[in-house]
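seq:
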Amino acid sequence: MKRPLIPRLVVAMVFSVGVHGASAQHEGHQPQKPVSPGSTDHSGHQKPAPERPSFIPAVSDEDRKAAFPDVEGHPAHDRAANYFVLLDQFEWQAGRHSSGINLDSKGWFGWDRDRLWFRAEGDSENGDVAAAEAQLFYGRQISRWWDLVAGVRQDLQPGPSRTFAAIGVQGLAPYWFEVEGTAYLGSSGVHVRGEVEYELLLTNRLVLQPLLEVEIFGKSDPERGIGAGLSTTEAGFRIRYEFRRELAPYIGVTWNNKFGRTADFAEAAGEDTNGARFVTGLRLWF
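struct:
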């Protein structure tokens, strides 16, 4: 009777492996690792390095110098003076009863941590200047994303000019909200202004920019039509298209509100206390 083929093959393979292993142990043979040129063999003798072919020239000092030249350090940029100017809003505003031009710009000159900042704002209504101010600050970086600023502010309109000492902070809050908070002290009392804006990229070139601005005054200033407490708020958004990062036309809507005594002064002067405005303009920087 014939035995099955597969069991016979398995038995033969096991038997062959066992015999080979026993023979290797008996003869003292061990598996050998390949010996690289210039290394030691299994007996501990040093293998000579292969000779260099005659057609390859010897390495000279000039060759070594060319392969490993002295690398000079590049100039550091931490002490270089730079500047930045942003025309954030240069726009035409059209409201229910009035229209005019609005300007909001800022910029700086200086170094990484110490800078000279400026801000300038202005509004016109029906061809007349309604508000104009300029600010100049020294700014010092106090953390990775925040600057402390201190300086002066000069108001030219409305009413008689006013001069204020100013101190504040500006920078990026968590989730990349741009924040400016500034307190002003002058003959007309204390004035606090806060501004928050955000840039939401709808595409790589289409950007939605919401903004909120709040102003609070410590005491009334009837000559300028300003009342104590919460005075004005402005909320809105602008959608811009960046043909280049430095140049972007935009459109948007803003809502302006006056409160308390400020609203009373506006009503007495025949002005609106609240309302929406359509805006269109240009944003650019250099």
